[in-house]
Known about the structure:
By secondary structure, the chain is of the alpha+beta class. It has a single domain (8-189), classed as Anthranilate synthase, CATH 3.60.120.10. Helices cover 15% and strands 36% of the residues. It has helices at 8-16, 35-41, 97-104, 132-136, and strands at 21-29, 49-54, 60-67, 72-77, 80-85, 88-93, 122-127, 153-158, 160-165, 170-178, 184-185, 188-189. Strand 9 and strand 10 (170-178) form a beta hairpin. The longest helix is centred in the first third of the chain and has 9 residues, at 8-16. The chain starts with 7 loop residues before the first helix and ends in a 9-residue tail after the last strand. The model is unreliable at 179-198 (pLDDT under 50).
Amino acid sequence: MPKYFPDFKQFSTAAAANAQIVPVWRQLLADRLTPVTALELLGDAEHAFLLESVVGIEKIGRYSFIATSPSFVYQAKDGKATVSGRNRSDARATTDPLDDLQKLLPSKRYHHDPRLPNFTGGLVGYAGYDTIRYYEGEKLTRPPADDRGLPGAICQKHQGSDRTDHRGGRSDHRAATGRGHHHRGRGGPRRAGTWHAL
Length: 198
């Protein structure tokens, strides 16, 4: 079994087709590790998440996703937005959290590999009911008091994630890699030195 996917030739083909972001992953057997125990192994990693897919009633879906260490975390509450993460910390007034997130995301062409599910990294979070105050506040003549004190919206950007395939009994780790930053070593491409994680 190859150590990394795609191999160098497949990666180069995707890059030549004008893809600016190409997912690269390594596959491992996961017959002794469940998504919950994998999350436990991460310990107290800040902003970790486990996203379980469920189909129908009490039927586990095919994939589970885990990620930690987002490149940034966006929070909006009471008209104020904060962005924190690696080498950045910013706070400002906001009137449109969704527009803020659109501006924070890079506008790049992504290569979807048919061997992967649609979710391979990106924004993970929520926009709560209170987010409606930003868009239809004039209709809320008597809005209820905030009795929870939680942000109206939190989203975090992940460069990659770990996926468990319940059907195949395998787990893989994916990272988004930029075109033109690749290196061919033994066993195929690798994210080290000349690979650049976006």
